Amino acid sequence: MAKKYVFIALDVGTHAVRACVFSLGGDSALWQVSEVFSCDISLDSPQSRHIEQSPTELWQALTSVYSQALNLATSKQLYTKDIHVGMAVQRSSVLVWERISGQALSPILSWQDTRGYKAIEQLNATERKNITLLTGLRPSPHYGATKLALLQKEYGLPAQTRPITFGPLAAWLIKQLTDNNTCDPVNAARTLLFNRKQARWDKSLCRMFNVMHAQLPNLKKSADYYGHIKWPNSEHFNKHYSGNAHLQAVLGDQNAAYVAMRHSQLPAAVTFKKPLVMNIGSGAFILGQCNKDNNSDTLGLLTSLAFSDNNNEQWLMEGTVNSAGTALSHWRESLAEPLSEHSLFAQLPQWLLNDSHCENNEAYFYLNTAAGIGSPFWLTRFSSSAQVFVNDAGERCTPSIPQQAAAIINSIAFLLVANILQFRQAPEASRYDGILATGGLSRVTGLIERVSDLCGLPIFVTKCHEATLHGTAMLGSNFMYKPRIQGHIVAAKKSSPVLLQRYERYIQLIKMQAL
């Protein structure tokens, strides 16, 4: 029997933690992919701009799914002495913990948390320019720096008597799994404290944001040896297993999805030479490969590290829509008679079709401010609970349920298009010849058609609905795992004048929010 290779991928998302087992060898020459083990996690908003998660709840969720995956990986069918593990984590979430024990001392401040917005507003032009030059990112309260500063102000004094570490959620999870205070560069970069050119924490940025450099975790490559994983204390785990598990890849969730889309085997019909990747989940992201010194700030976009290993770095130009699936979820839950997810997606195709036949003077718009407005506009001065619908004149109104749903989908499409059009002004513009789409909302055909028609690019909608898990397994296995991805192509059609005018009016309404 051939030697088995077993890899467990972990996906720590905004609303759930997932795990999946990828195995090769034994009696099969093909990769086997298990079911996905999943456990929901909650978000708490104790006050405006404060979005938190419980470290205990999140760790219990991760332990549960990891233990179930381990139990499968250590079964008679897959038994092997060494198990390889990789983890993708929601970026920009931060907390504080005891350096030695790893005990969490604060809630997890979510990437959606913007309580540090005043510190961002107080930055002068020179400071803003320097932040972007060093990090590739725009100053934003969604990133970790201002939240870490507030945590250090609240929890920093006991450090004189007990060592404390402040950092990204990924670093705390690494500590829990391996007992090492280490962080990967992708999640480190989302703090605004990471120097992208020198690949280290930047002391000048730490001083700017009043964050103590010495209390940040150590850094490794994305694909690197993070340590031996301690066995979880869980009823799900096979305690008779005597092998070892090793954590050997950590990156951001969006980055893992990008890896899955760009490094998988695509059908022969997909002939894109240099596609963009569009991932539409809780938030939505447009990602395109670029060089390290790319100056995307002039386009209102970001430059970020996709991943790194001992031989390679891949860099991305990135556009962000802060609220996609989250906007739909908040809206559904806010209705007098809440609408189930199943019911929404069953009726959405007809609602979007009706909306496409609507004249512009009868159209409604959703100002997608549930988590602030990201690139290329960068507007953050909103309440996270806002649900704002307006008519063509910009007046607040209350459309029907179908009209509200269509307006939210349109807002996601229009913000994605605004980012894609910025990509098409970049030096690499002539080479972006298509889009690879993934994420839960990529199944909404009306959304994909609107994006394709307005930006003029064909879109390959993949059936890889767990792209983050697949990308994590690919990077962590040094691309031994390289799956074939199926899907269908949505060809770009000339957008109707009505749709184009509605898009242009939406952008006008968004820009008016900055006045």
Automatic annotation (TrEMBL):
Organism: Marinagarivorans cellulosilyticus
Occurrences of domain Carbohydrate kinase FGGY N-terminal (ranges): 7-234
Gene3D superfamilies xrefs: 3.30.420.40
Protein name in the entry: Glycerol kinase
Taxonomic superkingdom: Bacteria
E.C. no: 2.7.1.30
Carbohydrate kinase FGGY C-terminal domain segment(s): 277-476
Keyword Protein biosynthesis appears in the UniProt entry: no
Family: Belongs to the FGGY kinase family.
GO biological process: glycerol metabolic process
UniProt keywords, alphabetically: ATP-binding, Kinase, Nucleotide-binding, Transferase
Residue intervals passing through the bilayer: none
SUPFAM superfamilies: Actin-like ATPase domain (SSF53067)
GO CC annotation terms, alphabetical: cytosol
Molecular function terms from GO: ATP binding; glycerol kinase activity
Cross-referenced Pfam families: FGGY_C, FGGY_N
